[in-house]
Amino acid sequence: MQKSRPTPPPDDRTAQTAGTPPVRGRGRPRAFDRAAALTQATRLFWTKGYEATSIADLTEAMGIGSPSLYAAFGSKEALYVEAVNHYRKSYEGLVWGRFFTAGTAREAVMGLLMDSAAALTGCRGDIPRGCMVTLSAVGSEGHAELGEVVRSARASAVGILTERLTRAVAEGEIPASVDLHALARFVQTVQAGMSILARDGAERAELEAVAEVAMLGWDARVGGRPSP
């Protein structure tokens, strides 16, 4: 009697023909982009403020679940601190760029105010209006530690201005009799007011006009003439 040959196992094509698909490996899950998520959180805090921004708002904007948010950033409070630091590193150059390269203190301040008029009104890219740090009310909303973070950021602007004005005195541009702290506060106050107006819808040209008027005040004070 002749032996029958054993039937070979079906290959993948045979299995597919029989209706059984071959086993395929799973695709690699998309990696979490922490930097991109932080940017989205920053924009949300910038636009809505700390208190009005919920965890649900954040997870939707960042494209992650709440467990991932807490795993990556620890808490909403910690995320806000990171967002403030991210804002300063990523966006403050839009208003301080010419300040640091100008040859005189007057040119530096004029550049700061004019660049603020452009940046605060969204003319320097797809960014929210106003300054995230200036407009933050987190301290008055019952979050003392977060309030100290933004107050420190605001204070740094006065320090930068005062340092530049001190150099201008040494170079003979500004009389030694000028109250440099008051002058630095004046510039900061003008810029802060511009930020509020930008959030309310003021246009770039309006804020540039404010900057020009502010420089008349600068000239009157620095030139030794009483302000009108």
Automatic annotation (TrEMBL):
DNA-binding region: 54-73
Keywords carried by this UniProt record: DNA-binding, Transcription, Transcription regulation
Alphabetized InterPro entries for the sequence: DNA-bd_HTH_TetR-type_CS, Homeodomain-like_sf, HTH_TetR, Tet_transcr_reg_TetR-rel_C_sf
Domain HTH tetR-type: 31-91
Pfam families referenced in this protein's UniProt entry, alphabetically: TetR_N
Lineage: superkingdom: Bacteria
Location of region: Disordered: 1-29
Regions annotated as coiled coil: none
PROSITE patterns: HTH_TETR_1, HTH_TETR_2
Protein name: TetR/AcrR family transcriptional regulator
Biological source species: Azospirillum argentinense
